Request: fold
Amino acid sequence: MSTSRKLAKFVPALALVALAVPSSAFGQATRTWVSGVGDDANPCSRTAPCKTFAGAISKTAANGEINCIDPGGFGGVTIGKSLAIKCRYTEGGLLVSGTNAIVVNAANGDKVTIDGLDINGIAAVGAPTSLSGVKVLNAARVNVLHSEIYNFQVGVAVVPTPASVNTTRVVLKDNHIHANNLGVINAPGNNNVNASSLTLRHNDIQDNICGVTTSAFGPNASTPVAATDCGAAGVGSGINHTAVTSTYWNGINDNGTGMLTRGASATAEIAYNDITGNSAFGLHRLDGGHYRTFSPATNAISNNAASDAPDQSSPLTKRRAKAIGR
Reply:
């Protein structure tokens, strides 16, 4: 029998085997797609997109990417692996009520990017009831870029709680974070955190009860009070770890308190920000919290009801100015 005839006999059998094997056995896609008119029963391909981020994430390989084809509301999601969600060039909406929008709870070495999303907690009249726009529980690196985050109890909560010792680093760049109880908090969530590092660059943080909180003692569970705690737990929390927030080129305006640091292991480094029009404090320090600024002065801190002076200062060398950038 010729080789071609032998192959012809096996082709139908191979086809039946392929049909019997679940699609997941062939692996997840490196790039998946969501659409406002998609369906989560689809494979999330470009021609057969999914409906939600939650539907797409299970079909996206680690280190893969989810993109939006067209405008839509794609729902909340928990991210448990290295992944990027990018929708900068169309409306990538997350509309949630009474819960978190995005939770990052990945492995110690994982890296996550969130880019170009409209994250809305659907606040009714009065205080927001939705929890966090973005909540970081664990990862090595998280980037939140070009997004609008509003109507939450906390806009972005960097409260890492790894199972083993980890340093979590988060970058927020070019976001509008507004109309939340607390705009941003950087506060280790348990004693397995070696350090929590947050960089804020070119964000507008406005119309929150408190704009930016850095707490060595972790977060508290209550509504932030601008004149007192801004969501930071006190010395009795049982947590005391390094929390550093590097704050460059931001507008922190028209909040209750613009920025608060709490605890001697909490430091906010500030350069080239305008911290103005805050009705309780521009800068506020509790329990030995620190603000590090530069000489000559680089920040505009004015028109606040009150403001605590920064307690640390460093010369603005050419190398340091280059690192701060624009």
Observations:
- DSSP finds three helices and 28 strands in the chain.
- The radius of gyration is 23 Å.
- Confidence is low (pLDDT under 50) at residues 10-26.
- The longest helix spans residues 3-20.
